[in-house]
Amino acid sequence: MTDTLPGTGLLGLSSLRHQVGEALTGFLDSKDQAAPGAELRYLTGTLRGLLAGGKRLRALLCVTGWQAAGATGDVTAAIHAAASLELFQVFALVHDDVMDDSDVRRGQPSAHRALALAYTADGGPHARAQAHGLGAAVLLGDLALVWSDELLHTAALAPGRLAQVQPLVAAMRSEIMYGQLLDLRTTGRLSDDVEGALRVVRYKTAKYTVERPLHIGAALAGATQPVLDACSAFGIPLGEAFQLRDDLLGVFGDPAETGKSVLDDLREGKSTVLMALAVQRASPAELDTLRALVGRSDLSEAQAAQVRSILHSTGARQTVEEMITTRHDAALAALDRAPFPAAAVVRLRQIARAATARQT
Amino acid sequence: MTDTLPGTGLLGLSSLRHQVGEALTGFLDSKDQAAPGAELRYLTGTLRGLLAGGKRLRALLCVTGWQAAGATGDVTAAIHAAASLELFQVFALVHDDVMDDSDVRRGQPSAHRALALAYTADGGPHARAQAHGLGAAVLLGDLALVWSDELLHTAALAPGRLAQVQPLVAAMRSEIMYGQLLDLRTTGRLSDDVEGALRVVRYKTAKYTVERPLHIGAALAGATQPVLDACSAFGIPLGEAFQLRDDLLGVFGDPAETGKSVLDDLREGKSTVLMALAVQRASPAELDTLRALVGRSDLSEAQAAQVRSILHSTGARQTVEEMITTRHDAALAALDRAPFPAAAVVRLRQIARAATARQT
User: Which 3 state secondary structure label does DSSP give B94?
Assistant: First the structure.
């Protein structure tokens, strides 16, 4: 069953997702077969589970970037490069969860929790389970990172293309790590620095999640600079809107829909734009409440409700909604000016809608 | 001041170390200059400190592999590739210390400890210092890993050489991660499985630390298969001897010399060949003592002395010394048969001696 994008002749999103999934499965199968021992399945099994849950946003953007640069025909190499971005994303998620000590990811136990459970189920001593889970998750992320590289290198790209793609991949990696660094340095410190929070959004999400996957796909098709620039003009505002939506969902979302705890961001004291706006505008009494509650690792549901009420009463929530709309509109306007084939524009509109919707 | 290896005309080890250090410094300088903000210096500063302490064994082997394959002339590209292995090694050390929760590395606080201290010194809340240090160290390791890749890709290799080197780099990375996985799964479980412990040694050290750096250097010079095979015949036994020596130093060494705590391996319950031999040969009373003490995170110096005494009385220590000698001799014998230029053989003998000496 192959679906197509109406009116374009392009493969539909679900067909693309399926092909990316097949590429990932094929790669992991080859790793399991080549492994010196069965122990590796302990990590590849966990990887398969994590890869199954994603929406494959980066992969879809990568393939669409390839189409935006005018490529048609055999999509195989683009699918492999797209799959390598999904492996990279699993690396980023697994290490992010370790850094944030998050329990849940995509509705399942996060990797370090799952690996701790697997260790005791396998007869490992309970006293070491947590340390083992953490160590195994760090290792799992490392493996996903180096394998994402390998998947890209073995993607059978046209001659010379790898050299064109490589600097963009290097930039993407450095950018997300810079964003993570900013995030780490601000987490747990209540701040009114909206600009600072937006910088984190730009590096950690806008560039990493949207702009660079488009760039990498476009470079696979030998994109010209105007095409790359148009990818940025669309990708940066869309990526910011996407992260701002994610921040709202992280506090006001429905865990059954998002697969994420609605307490984690508040317990960690994530320095989001939402929180910085609330701090800017809070009354002295409200500020005292935020100071007392945000960042408490034992924050209760009732205390979280108090924080949510301040995010609402200060208008911070409403302002973030407006920021999302502004950015979503800017992304669509950039698309109107972009030198992309019409079919790629249709697809990017579809992705923009899904990425900034009020529910995931 | 340029030293040369006597009788060969090759640069001496200290000159090579110096050139590798210059390449690393130049690379990190360029990263600091290109960074969007000063925050990055928080991580690059820590990286510089970690890179300063090493013996650069992998880098020296890489350059010597290049010479073993018959290369002469401009060593610049080989030095850059060698430097990329040192960055990779810092990645491996930093994540290894996170996984093992080690406090000390190369005589200094380990990365996660140092970063926790830097965080509180910078005004970060004490309650978050440990979590921050751990997260920042995971990130630092990630950055070292992707930068090692970048340093290799920008090493100005002869055309076609990168494609020849890439599969060997991929193999090296997968192998050390496989070794780490075996290590993680066995740590904390007292075992008499000498063969299993030797498998960890083979993947985590022999291939990663010796064989693959030689291979990568040799491939940079377009090595033939007989040269690569000779690198393995020398590298695997030497790497095993090196790790077995390291295991002895980790329990019986002088921390002032090794820069490592002499309690960590015992507290973690590392599954070394040394310990597996002792478990095989222990009397029931000795086995009870080992079970009670090995893996205790609060192991005292007096308790460690009890364990050392059993490692001695069972003959485990002596057997490991003999295993080191056997492997060291096998490595030297392989060198006699190797199709390497005489100067490379002189250098490899020198490295073999240093790597398996009773003191570091």
Answer: helix
